[in-house]
Write a structure and sequence with these properties.
This protein has about 650 residues and is of the alpha/beta class. It folds into 5 domains: about 130 residues, Response regulator (Rossmann fold, 3-Layer(aba) Sandwich); about 110 residues, 2-Layer Sandwich (Beta-Lactamase); about 70 residues; about 160 residues, Histidine kinase-like ATPase, C-terminal domain (Heat Shock Protein 90), CATH 3.30.565.10; about 130 residues, Response regulator (Rossmann fold, 3-Layer(aba) Sandwich). Helix content is about 40%, strand content about 25%. Strands 11, 12, 13, 14, 15, 16 and 17 form a 7-stranded mixed sheet that branches.
Length: about 650
């Protein structure tokens, strides 16, 4: 298929123009031409259509070939121009070629025209291809420059003339953005890069990059490097050799990447793994210890009830019970930290919770610390476990007391926090929040201490004066409740802890009425626990409260006992976490056989039946945490049964609850 050739002919003789067109057609071109004679006509033609070729006569009455060539170049069009002439001097030919003509051909030798046109078209195509490639390269480099300026990446070139020698010969301009030093500084100062490598990393890095690279395919290292502002950042450094023919030095091209954010995430992940492991150990230990304490406290109460009041033996038994309760308080912190405490959230008003703790907090802080509470209007409500919220406030108050080491002021305040409040920690999900803040006028903390305060078992107190679990427990409870916590402190300026809990529009739950004394009954209760000692003491306490008791050491035995029992079964009192069959499953299967039976769960924590499967207390089924007192046991049993026992006697702890007479 013939190539279309758009030709602008600058020619005053029409016959000569026809001859040119015929010669081009004979060469195989599909010629589309236009003939002009004057400068004005040529200007219009150049502006009006794209052209592949301009052919101009060497001598025109009103317009010279030199002027035609110059006019073409003034338009910045990349179009070849060939001059044809019948009579022209050598000097005139030189002038048109200097003006920019592509070739000069005598009209008597038109056989040269077609080869000259083919050559010029080919060269024009090559020029345009080169221009397109250069433009594409320019755009690519421009995009690369934008990317480099955006990413924390620097490029560099170094020469290694010999092992142990290293000279930086080039650094990309964006290096200044990631390290604070201009690129030229690295080239001018040979010691800059080495001098700012962290001392603990320097030997390792120099061994990697300054050794003999002649047989090494690449070098890679991660290390700390001090920026111009003094901050230490982590960098990934990777280089590969580029051996140019004839070059004596071994050149390396490398990339320098700021990976500080990635390293921070790795450290957070490792810390989370460590906390998970510590939490599992702490939770398991607390659960086992709670079973032991349940036996100790239970038998201490049974023993105290059997001894005459006022005797030394009665006092000793009660002291055993109090020691057991102190141990139970410690295990509650371990369970909260490990997130294995059974959580029973309900809608709370934080103002009410803090206000009701006022008396206990004043006793806790002591006479030399002034307690000040500030309740803001319209704070709102939260969905949380009331016991856990109280523990958060109590632990923060204890931390404030210890920080003041004597006299001072502890301020506990509540407030509504809008989604855009600047006090919210970075990364807080959008939404409305309720704040509980505890501020002290104590010694404050430096940055190093602040970075570790939520680590379990970390404490700045003297040996024997702190467990290091208080703040770790606070953070675990806050996380478990879907909240956030922030701390603001400086040496000599005191400390403020701000706890943010998600705000809810639900109405606050009403509190169930409390009964004084110990209330027993005469119903039949199936008691199930896989720990024989705990089962035995629980059964004795229940019998002491007047109940008929059937004992079982596991789910399967409990189902067989229920099937064998011909009388009514009013209550299933079962451990929540047991091997083979947990308490929730046992209650479901028991209700399938006895639809009217009530349930009461007891446990040291809500453990797991299988990895990733949490036991959840069903709605409407009461829960009693181990270890428990006879009074709390009696109260929960009556709550589970749903009504007070008719004709039962109420009285102080130790009363049997049997009917009079």
């Amino acid at each position: 298929m013939p190539r279309t050739l758009r030709v602008l002919l600058v020619e005053d003789v029409e016959d000569d123009a026809v001859l040119v067109v015929r010669e081009l057609q004979r060469a195989g071109f599909d010629v589309r031409s236009e003939r002009v004679e004057t400068r004005a006509q040529m200007e219009v033609a150049l502006a009006g259509a794209p052209w592949d070729l301009v052919i101009t006569d060497g001598s025109l009455p009103q317009f010279s070939a030199v002027e035609a060539v110059r006019l073409l170049h003034q338009t910045w069009l990349d179009v070849p121009c060939i001059v044809l002439s019948g009579t022209i001097t050598e000097e005139a030919a030189v002038q048109v070629l200097k003006a920019g003509a592509s070739d000069f051909i005598v009209k008597g030798n038109l056989a040269r025209l077609a080869p000259a046109v083919l050559r010029e078209l080919r060269e024009a195509d090559n020029r345009r291809g080169k221009q397109r490639a250069e433009e594409a390269l320019r755009r690519t480099l421009q995009r690369l420059d934008i990317v480099l300026r955006t990413l924390p990446i620097g490029l560099y070139s170094v020469d290694h003339p010999a092992p142990g020698e290293c000279t930086i010969t080039w650094m990309s301009e964006n290096t200044e953005r990631i390290c604070g030093f201009p690129a030229a500084r690295f080239v001018a100062d040979a010691e800059l890069w080495v001098s700012r490598i962290h001392p603990d990393d320097r030997d390792r890095v120099l061994a990697e990059f300054h050794g003999d690279h002649r047989e090494k395919p690449s070098s890679t290292a991660e290390y700390r490097w001090q920026r111009a502002d003094g901050a230490w950042r982590w960098f990934l450094d990777h280089s590969r050799p580029v051996r140019e023919p004839g070059a004596g030095a071994h050149q390396h091209l490398g990339v320098w990447i700021d990976v500080s954010d990635r390293k921070a995430l790795e450290e957070q992940f490792l810390h989370a793994q460590k906390m998970e492991a510590v939490g599992r150990i702490a939770g398991g230990t607390a659960h086992d210890f709670n079973n032991i304490l349940a036996v100790v406290i239970g038998y201490a109460e049974i023993l105290a009830a059997a001894l005459p009041a006022g005797t030394p033996s009665r006092g000793q038994a009660e002291e055993i019970r109090r020691a057991g309760e102190r141990g139970a308080a410690l295990t509650r912190q371990l369970l909260s930290f490990s997130r294995r405490q059974v959580v029973q959230p309900r809608v709370l008003d934080p103002d009410v919770v803090v206000a009701e703790m006022g008396g206990m907090l004043r006793s806790l802080l002591g006479e030399e610390v002034v307690l000040e509470t500030r309740f803001a209007p319209g704070v709102g409500r939260v969905l949380a476990d009331p016991g856990q919220v109280e523990q958060v406030v109590m632990n923060l108050a204890v931390n404030a007391r210890d920080a003041m080491a004597g006299s001072g002021r502890c301020i506990i305040e509540t407030g509504y926090v809008a989604p855009d409040d600047p006090r919210l920690p970075r990364g807080t999900p959008p939404g409305e929040w309720v704040m509980i803040a505890v501020t002290d006028t104590g010694s404050g903390m430096d940055e190093a201490v602040r970075a570790r305060i939520f680590e379990p078992f970390f404490t700045t107190k003297e040996d024997g004066k702190g467990t290091g679990l208080g703040l770790a427990t606070v953070q675990s409870i806050v996380d478990q409740s879907g909240g956030r916590i922030a701390v603001e402190s400086a040496p000599g300026k005191g400390t403020t802890f701000r706890v943010f809990l998600p705000r809810t529009e639900e109405a606050a739950a009403s509190r169930a009425p409390t009964r004084s004394g110990v209330e027993g009954g005469s119903e039949t209760v199936l008691v199930v626990d896989d720990q024989a000692e705990v089962l035995q003491v629980t059964a004795e306490l229940m019998r002491g409260l007047g109940y008929k008791v059937i004992e079982a050491t596991g789910g399967a035995q409990a189902l067989r006992a229920a099937e064998a029992h011909r009388g009514p079964l009013h209550l299933l009192l079962t451990d929540l976490a047991m091997p083979e069959m947990n308490g929730v499953v046992l209650l479901e299967r028991m209700r399938a056989a006895r639809p009217g039976i009530r349930g009461l769960f007891v446990s040291g924590y809500a453990g797991t039946v299988a990895p990733g499967t949490e036991i959840r207390v069903p709605a409407g089924v009461p829960f009693l945490a181990k270890p428990f007192s006879v009074q709390s046991l009696a109260s929960k049993v009556r709550e589970a049964l749903g009504t007070p026992a008719p004709g039962m006697v109420t009285g102080p702890p130790g009363a049997t609850g049997r009917p009079p007479g």
